[in-house]
Design goal:
This protein has 291 residues and is α/β, with parallel strands linked by helices. It has a single domain, classed as Ribonuclease Z/Hydroxyacylglutathione hydrolase-like (Metallo-beta-lactamase, Chain A, 4-Layer Sandwich). It has 8 helices and 15 strands. It has an 8-stranded mixed beta sheet. It has a 5-stranded mixed beta sheet with strand order 11-12-13-14-15, covered by helices on one side. A hairpin with an 8-residue loop joins β12 and β13.
Length: 291
Amino acid sequence: MKKYLALLAIVFVFACKEANNKVANVSDSKGVISKPEVKLYTFDGGTVVVNTLGLFAQDETYKGQSKEFADAFYVIQHPKGNLMWDAGLPQSLVGLEEPYTSADGAFTVSRKDSVLGQLKQIGMTPEDFEYLSLSHTHFDHSGHANEFKNSTWLVQKKEYDFVTGEEVKEKNPDMYNAIKDLKRIKKIDGDYDVFGDGTVVLKYMPGHTPGHQALFLNLKEHGPLLLSGDLYHFYENREYKRIPIFNYDVGQTRESMKKFEAFAEEMGAKVYLQHQKDDFNKMPKAPYYLN
C-alpha cells in the first residue's frame, strides 16, 4: 500500500509539472498546440544625443566622444490585454523648434510626436491598455507614463520606493512628477509573468536603478527576444560589460549582466538594445509589427 501511495505521489507531481509546462500553449480544434498570438509594435520615443559619452564607462574609454541614441517605446498586444513598455522622452519636447540641451551640456534631446498621435497609427488610445511597465524611471523612459493613469503600473517594489522616496522628490522632482498620476499600482518583487503563459515576462535586472528590469517576449513567428532596458545602452558596453558612472549599484549591474546573458543563451533569445540605433532601425515600425 505504501509503495502504491508513493508511486501515486510521483505520478501526481509529474502531472502537475507537465501541466505547468503547457500553460503557455493553446490547442486548436484539431488538437494542435500553439503559442498565443502576441504582437510587438515599436515606436519612436525621441532622440538622445550624448555629448559626454564618458559618462557611460567607469574608466576614460569614451572620454571626448559623443553618440546618438534611439529612445524607443513599445506596445505589446496579447489576447488577454495590452502592455505599454517604456514611455520615451518627456512629451513637453514635442513642438519645440530646437532640441533641448541639459544645463550641464551632457545630453541634447528631442521628441517629434506625442503618444496619443503615435497610438492612432494602430487604432489605439491609452484607455486600451491594461498595463504599463517601465524598464526604470529615468526621464527618457517615463515621458508619457502619466497618460496611462487608468492602466495598472507593474513596477518593482524597490523601483517604486526609490522614485517615490523623499530624496528623489527633493533632488529630482521631475523624475517623481513623471509617474505621480499613476494610482493603479501592482508592486512586484523579481521576475513577473504578465499574462501567466510565459510569452511576456518582466525580468528583474537591478543595478542601473534599484528596480531596473528587462522584458522577455516569446513570439510565435520571430521567436524569443529580450528588450534590454538600460542594462546596456550600446553594443560596446554589452561586449565589454562597461557600466555608466551614474548607475545606482555597479556590483548589482554586473550580476544582472551575467543573469541576462545566461537567460538569453538558455532561451535562444535575440537581444535588442533599446538605445542602440542599429537595433532600433532593425525593428519594423508601427503600424507594422513583430509576431
